[in-house]
# Entry
Amino acid sequence: MLLGDSAKMPLRKEYTANLEKLKVDVQKMGELAKDSARNAITALVQRDSVLASRIIKENVTIDDLEFDIENRCMKLIALQQPMAVDLRTIGTCMKIITDFDRISDLAGDIAEIVLQIADEPHVKPLIDIPRMSEISQGMLSDCLEAFSTGEIKMLENFSDRDDEIDALFDQIRRELITITIEKPRFIESASHLNFVALHLERIGDHACNIASRIIYMVTGKRRKLE
Amino acid sequence: MSKIEVCGLNVYYEKGTVHALKEVNIEIESNKITALIGPSGCGKTTFLRALNRMNEVNDVMTKGKVIIDGKDIYNGGVDVIQLRKKVGMVFQQPNPFPMSIYDNVAYGPRIHGMRNKKLDMIVEESLKKAALWDEVHDRLEKNALKFSGGQQQRLCIARALAVNPEIILFDEPCSALDPISTSKVEDLLRALKKDYTIVIVTHNMQQAARVSDFTAFFLLGELIECGKTTQIFEKPKDKRTEDYVTGRFG
# Structure
């Protein structure tokens, strides 16, 4: 059979449908992880224990989704021998679900902190932490859009955006050190906030990992963003 | 370093009415395995057979150059027998002669005038290179047709090696073999490339991915893309190659 003849006939229908479904579920997992991270900061700002508890519960759904997606990736590799863009897509899915899972774990850690400090006033007004969250949310949104559309232009400036998050983290850390030196009774609360900032900094790093994987998926070229 | 350089190769069948290969240009590296892939009828076997003028057995017209070690094999003065000694071939179906293992391997060297002890040495060496010696060394006088398909195919490889070629062409050598025999032949190919330049036609893309260093994709008589195997299977440049290797046409 010549290529010209077969061009009229769709091939590997079930495989193609499974691959599409895989991408949809990775997208869904990414949205859930992103929402968890956003809600964790909302819960912190509003000292909302109910929202914090919900984030911790929802982590289980994300864990299950990761397990299921990984399983399906392994099956597609084992049974369908994917090549070229399909192989890159499945490889990317397997890598970025780990990042999404870590993001939701970090959101869960922030939610745990919220439960511990929800009854106390913040040691400082929360300005830079929501700013870090906003930048990382923007990065995750762009990752998800790039993953679904294959348009990677918006990932180009991720290193700069990550630098911005890192700079905010340094600023917060210095500020918290000053507070604890001046008012040692706030050591515990300041330490909690320091952890929140550290988790947000890590979320920025995960967004960079995801972006570099998506660039590879689309272009076939490996590029490290950090 | 390239062993074979193909320039503007065109092959026509049926008195020029079927244009089977169109302006193919490719360099084939020395001591590497180059896999030719593509759908049925794309010209990959025609291309393979053009490398030792096997197409001439049929009614074909060839235009262009196939330069091996700096000499165009389509030049008038080329001795085709010597060419096919230098560029050996193994076919899809194992095709041992209906004679003993020993005589199968000794057949070529005998034609070229080899006799006695030197012949014994060549038979042993060729069977060892084809990873068959351990299985047959005590049954060299047995009829080759009594052996399994995998063993017969390795015998054909030993027979090709016995005349000391520099290039070996494989035309779907594993398509009639079971997975274990296939795996033995694939291991053998990898071992042989140290001493030989190998070109293999395969319909099995996983096989091309597993064994070859370079892969060339043919479609409708044209060479669409040729590159390192990892590049062809991970990031093909041409959309048609991508559609083919992912199993989606069009």
User: Anything to note?
Assistant: Residues 2-96+167-245 of chain B form a domain with the Rossmann fold fold (CATH 3.40.50.300). The CA atoms of residues 174 and 183 of chain B lie 9 Å apart. Strands of chain B lie at 2-13, 18-29, 33-37, 60-68, 71-72, 87-90, 167-171, 197-201, 214-219, 222-228. The interface with chain A takes residues 39-42, 205-206, 209, 219-220, 233-236, 240-242, 244-250 of chain B (CB under 8 Å).
